């Protein structure tokens, strides 16, 4: 407001004429109805107010609890923006009206709560069995709760939230690389995401395991369909008959185990390994079995039956899965006589007098012919003498 000021003298009886008037201007009135609206992503506050009498312009200020000015903006109108406000703080906002000589008192105040700061020191640990990721971080200024997001390289998304600085993310899909971020929340604003960290979930189970055996050498070729996320593999054969274990390693989808013992029944599993030091091994979801060729029959005995042209052959049972045994008698002319038996003895008939025969026993399985036994040589003379 503008005021005319004059001075008169009064001696108790008379009053002088007023002096020449001078003009003075009062300080602008305090701006009223101050409001703030925060842009969370930039921590910029839009400040508005009602025009005040006597003002030529306005200055909006944001101060902390120590009355330290952190940001300000000037306007000839009734709004301006406070930019680059610090994160995670509750600030007082005042608007001061000014003219050429005086400023208003800045008494009315508004409050702005800025977006939370960025969480730091994010770390993740994986439970290999459940594929649950445990996430931890340091608290963020201004956050009342936190949101944790995980997104895989294949687009799968999951999350968890908590009011404290740790959270478990369930249901991670196997064999994927995840990017994990943490954001602070204050009920109005979401703060900036933390620096992302990478977590590899446990590899998927290997499937389609197959085994083929070279019966002659007892060498097994193991093949499988790799589970997603596995980079290397270990195929293991565990014997049912004892502690024997055999294995082979591969970066592909097959490997070979040679010179296996005869007569063994094996359980086969394939373990996959992901990123070294960052994930967990995973075994095959289903198991398959493998039987090596039966062992060589031992303790072969041959006895001749006089007058019947028959040789009775017996032996000790072979180790392994034996379907039956084949006994073979071959004379020096290459003529062959055989008999089969599911027990440990067999009679070969039709022997010819005056011949020498090489007699051997071979164990047979469903898939393999074992190695033949030591040869027993017999001679069929007039009296069928054995030598």
UniProtKB/TrEMBL annotation:
Coiled coil: none annotated. It comes from the Eukaryota. Residues 118-204, 296-383 form the Fibronectin type-III domain. CDD domains: FN3. InterPro entries: FN3_dom, FN3_sf, Ig-like_fold. Pfam families: fn3. This is Fibronectin type-III domain-containing protein.
């Amino acid at each position: 407001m503008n005021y005319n000021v004059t001075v008169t003298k009064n001696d108790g009886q008379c009053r002088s004429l007023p002096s020449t008037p001078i003009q003075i201007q009062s300080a602008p009135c305090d701006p009223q109805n101050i409001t703030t609206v925060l842009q969370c992503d930039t921590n910029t506050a839009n400040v508005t107010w009602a025009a005040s009498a006597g003002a030529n312009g306005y200055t909006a200020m944001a101060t902390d609890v120590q009355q330290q000015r952190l940001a300000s903006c000037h306007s000839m109108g009734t709004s301006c923006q406070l930019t680059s406000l610090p994160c995670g703080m509750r600030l007082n906002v005042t608007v001061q009206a000014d003219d050429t000589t005086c400023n208003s008192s800045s008494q009315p105040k508004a409050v702005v709560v800025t977006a939370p700061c960025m969480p730091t020191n994010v770390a993740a640990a994986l439970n290999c069995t459940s594929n649950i990721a445990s996430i931890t971080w340091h608290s963020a200024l201004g956050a009342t709760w936190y949101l944790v997001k995980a997104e895989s390289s294949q687009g799968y998304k999951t999350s968890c939230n908590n009011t404290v600085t740790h959270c478990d993310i369930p249901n991670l899909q196997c064999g994927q690389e995840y990017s994990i971020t943490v954001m602070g929340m204050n009920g109005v604003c979401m703060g900036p995401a933390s620096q992302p960290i990478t977590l590899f979930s446990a590899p998927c189970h290997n499937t389609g395991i197959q085994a083929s055996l070279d019966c002659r050498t007892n060498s097994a070729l193991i093949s499988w369909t790799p589970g997603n996320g596995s980079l290397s593999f270990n195929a293991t054969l565990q014997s049912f008959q004892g502690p024997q274990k055999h294995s082979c390693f591969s970066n592909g989808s097959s490997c070979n185990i040679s010179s296996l013992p005869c007569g063994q029944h094996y359980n086969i599993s394939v373990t996959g390994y992901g990123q070294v030091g960052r994930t967990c091994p995973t075994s095959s979801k289903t198991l398959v079995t493998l039987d090596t060729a039966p062992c060589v029959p031992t303790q072969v005995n041959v006895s001749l039956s006089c007058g019947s042209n028959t040789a009775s052959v017996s032996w000790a049972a072979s180790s392994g899965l034996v379907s039956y045994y084949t006994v073979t008698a071959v004379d020096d002319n290459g003529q062959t006589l055989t008999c089969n038996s599911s027990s440990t003895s067999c009679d070969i008939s039709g022997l010819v007098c005056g011949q020498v025969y090489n007699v051997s026993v071979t164990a047979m399985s469903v898939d393999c012919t074992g190695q033949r036994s030591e040869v027993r040589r017999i001679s069929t003379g007039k009296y069928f003498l054995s030598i």
